[in-house]
Amino acid sequence: MLETIQIIIAYILLIIGSLFLLIGAVGLIRMPDVFTRMHAVSVMESTGASLIIIGLIIYSGFNSVSLKLIVILLAVIFISSVATHALARACIHDGIKPLKISRGKEQ
Amino acid sequence: MIFNIIIFIISIALLLSLFRALIGPTIFDRLLAANIIGTTTVLFLVIYGFLSGRTDFLDIAITYILLNLIGTFAVLKYFRYGTLSHGEEE
Amino acid sequence: MNKSILILVQIIILFLFWYLLSGKNGILLLSIGAICSIIIVFYLLKIRMIDDESLPIKILPKAIYYWIWLYKEMILSSIYISKLILFPRLNISPQYFKIKSKQKSTMGFNIYANSITLTPGTISVIINNSNKEIDVHSISKDTKTSLLKSEMDNKIKKLMGDNDI
């Protein structure tokens, strides 16, 4: 019984995480500017990847596999934020101006 | 069964990122797409390890994510300073 | 923090990582791992990489609560960005502004900048440690207002306490 609940929770987390990955990839195509594309990528990297890995941790229980998965989770989260910041700073230093559009309810 | 579906969705995300890497207007778009392709490949490796029942793929995934970080930083440093040897401001 | 405790903690972390990756119990492999950890820590000492900044074990228990709160924030703003992406008319209005942080220590400021980048919807572009200012790019007005409420800043200030790292 307990095992069934564990597997069901893991499957739900895996499905939600992969849907976040897909939505982020669609945003990567749709967004108009390199900075806004970074926001879409951060949905993929931080939320999608971490939900998938947490789902796998719950699926496998407590053993050496889940410890390795925790190492991968920490590496993904810490590395993604540092790499995004470095990329944004390199863009600004290269002279790319952030896009300014205002539509919708503000205008 | 569920792992097959997840691998299918991840593959679609990989294809979309690859499309952005091909058409990206500036070099930073391509770099961003390359970075996210690396992270998605790590997820692909992990899921494939669970699908085939061989958890040795996790070691490859750990190696791959460290290589991904080093690759992104090497390219960024090259664009910032014009050289890979040492970082002096102009 | 006492330096010998930091050295011991570093050796134990490296040895546990070795044991995790090898996964075997043989006496030969374990002794090779121990020797390798000690050599690595020796070289880390030589380039002065072991101090309170590289191993912040003092704030680690409080940091776990902060990580759980940050993860909840990440999920909520991911759902917000997903709605923005999937809406047929792309309803974004990018903003670029400066924000002033209340942090005193370098490490608290670092945690703040990285948390801003980690939350979807805001990216810290240029950080200035001397006057504690961050240039932030945000995707819409809502994420800007939720950042200017400085709830995250107060949480990190409480997390750091009076540790001046």
| Strands of chain C, total number | 3
Strand order of the largest sheet of chain C: 1-3-2
Rg over C-alpha atoms of chain C, rounded to the nearest angstrom: 21 Å
Order of helices and strands of chain A: HHH
Supply the helix-strand structural class of chain C: mainly alpha
Beta-strand fraction estimate of chain A: under 5%
**Residue share in helices of chain C?**
55-70%
Helix/strand structural class of chain A = mainly alpha
Taken from the alpha-carbon principal axes, the silhouette of chain A is: elongated
Strand content of chain C: 5-15%
Major sheet of chain C = 3 strands, antiparallel
What's the helical proportion of residues of chain A? Answer: over 70%
Total helical segments of chain A: 3
Count of individual beta strands of chain A: 0
End-to-end span of chain C in angstroms?
A: 11 Å
Can you summarize this structure?
The complex is a heterotrimer of chains A (about 110), B (about 90) and C (about 160). Chain A is an all-alpha fold.
Structural commentary:
The complex is a heterotrimer of chains A (107), B (90) and C (165). Chain A has 3 helices and no strands. Chain A is mainly α and 107 residues long. Chain B has 90 residues and is an all-alpha fold. Chain C has 165 residues and is mainly α. Chain C has 2 domains: 3-46; 60-160, no CATH class. Chain C is built from 6 helices and 3 strands, in the order αααβαββαα. Chain C is elongated and about 65 Å long. The model of chain C has no long low-confidence stretch (mean pLDDT 87). The A-B interface holds A 11, 14-15, 18-19, 21-22, 24-26, 28-29, 34, 37-38, 41, 44-45, 49, 52-53, 56, 59-60, 65, 68-69, 71-72, 75-76, 79-80, 82-83, 86-87, 90-91, 93-94, 96 and B 2, 5-6, 9-10, 12-14, 16-17, 19-20, 26, 28-29, 31-33, 35-36, 39-40, 42-43, 46-47, 50, 55, 58-59, 61-62, 65-66, 68-69, 72-73, 76, 79-80.
